[in-house]
Amino acid sequence: MTFAIPAPFVPSLPVAGDDMRFPIRRIYCIGRNYADHAKEMGAAVERTQPMFFMKPADAIVADDGDIAYPTATADLHHEVEMIVALARGGHDIPREHALDCVFGYGVGLDLTRRDLQAAAKAKGHPWDVAKGFDASAPASALRRVADIGHPRHARISLEVNGELRQQADIAEMIFDVAAIIHELSRLWALAPGDLVYTGTPAGVAALQRGDHVVASLDGIARLEGRIV
């Protein structure tokens, strides 16, 4: 096949302990998946219907690279999240089979232009400009399910310049991984290469140029980077 222009670069993440990389097709995100975070954002805790949004695949920042402070904002916020990478997909995936789709796990940041998000909320507009901008999805290397299984309990945390900002146990998620995959597959056909950001605990706050961030999913993944 001959393309009219050069084919776009395929974003990818390293796989821990291997030379191969995981190619990224789509990035799905779930909002307000920890009750304390929903409360700090002034939102109701919704336990019946998850809220999803998306980021472009090339929003990924891999390999502990520098993270560019985005344009058009004066209030960039961090949101640390467990990442789920899919090796299989489909429509209407039963919850009891959802974990069979998982390739591995990692940790990442759902960076948010909070001022633009607040303005969009006030007008009832979509959040795209607040969530789906360039370099808005820093992510760690992935750990394969074959190596670590499916974590049920793990401490997730974020430090900024050595100060602990966020921490929780992933068991506190309102919708667990199987439920998220099931609900996503009712709305989209999931496929190999999809990433799912699974929500953030309380403690979100602003980042500045020069900040050093360390995100951890204990015993599983670690992400380190600098805001530039």
UniProtKB/TrEMBL annotation:
Residues 27-228 form the Fumarylacetoacetase-like C-terminal domain. InterPro entries: Fumarylacetoacetase-like_C (IPR011234), Fumarylacetoacetase_C_sf (IPR036663). GO terms for molecular function: acetylpyruvate hydrolase activity; metal ion binding. It comes from the Bacteria. Keywords: Hydrolase, Metal-binding, Pyruvate. Gene3D superfamilies: Fumarylacetoacetase-like, C-terminal domain. The keyword Hydrolase applies. This is Fumarylpyruvate hydrolase. The keyword Ribosomal protein does not apply.
